[in-house]
Amino acid sequence: MTSHEIDYRIYGEEMQFVEIELDPQEGVVAEAGSFMMMDDGIKMETIFGDGSQKDSGFFGKILGAGKRILTGESLFMTAFYNDFTGKRNVSFASPYPGKIIPIDLTEFRGKFICQKDAFLCAAKGVSIGIEFSKKLGRGLFGGEGFIMQKLEGDGMAFVHAGGTMAKKVLQAGETMKVDTGCLVGFTQGVDYDIEFVGGIKNTVFGGEGLFFAKLQGPGTVYIQSLPFSRLAGRVLASAPRGGGKDKGEGSILGGLGDLLDGDNRF
């Protein structure tokens, strides 16, 4: 194996974290900001790119950092190594309520494709690159799916899904349609395209977006019930107006208070 062989355990139900057990000299790479806690004896190092063998050498590291810019991520990743003589643990937390999905890349022929913000951490040696769309429709209209991340190697990787996670195994020729924001990731055998919703009423009044993600098997697809963009939109829509004053959401007094202090402008 080119990737480090790590053990893990996932804790929690709605706000999960994954605990990685590292043998001496084993390592794990993670997105900046996902670190939660670690045992004494673990060394933390900031690196360009993902630290895989594909990024060896100066120009390889620059290329790895450039790939991360295209996916909207930080130039740097953080690597954690066990410099202790015994086993040590390091933990990484999910960014918002949902599920952490363990991905054994050996089960998916060494490659898994996921949304840009889904990746959490992976064994040292796993390559975190970019997957460009091969179809123009995806690039022009897909929004979430034009540039996706690809995880390659023979180790463990962990991605995060918001809300409840659904796993669908598609047979050859079997298709399904998914909201573009709800798509977490899929295996390399799945054909992915963007399809127009269609119909004037659906387009203008449907409120579900103009496009679906159309996926055709064979392969495995992971879907999330609560993408972060949807969660953030609901939070912003419910935020109190007028300098953060909250007079009782959904109450008559709340609306009357807005009228009295001039928050409702005509």
Overview of this protein structure:
The structure is a single chain. The chain has a single domain (7-235), classed as Double-stranded beta-helix (4-Layer Sandwich), CATH 3.60.160.10. The chain is 17% helix and 41% strand. The chain contains five helices and 19 strands. The chain has helices spanning 58-70, 136-141, 200-205, 228-238, 252-260, and strands at 7-11, 17-22, 27-30, 35-38, 42-48, 76-82, 88-93, 98-104, 111-114, 119-123, 127-132, 147-152, 156-162, 165-170, 175-179, 183-187, 191-196, 211-216, 219-224. The strands form four sheets. Strands 5-6-3-10-13-8 form a six-stranded antiparallel β-sheet.
Describe the global form: globular
**Assigned CATH superfamily:** Mitochondrial biogenesis AIM24
Tell me the strand percentage band: 35-45%
* Continuous helix count: 5
Q: Which parts are unreliable, with pLDDT below 50 for 5 consecutive residues or more?
A: 138-145, 202-208, 247-253, 259-266
Q: Could you give the order of the helices and strands?
A: EEEEEHEEEEEEHEEEEEEHEEHH
Cross-sheet strand order for the largest sheet: 5-6-3-10-13-8
CATH class annotation: Alpha Beta
Structural class by helix and strand composition: alpha+beta
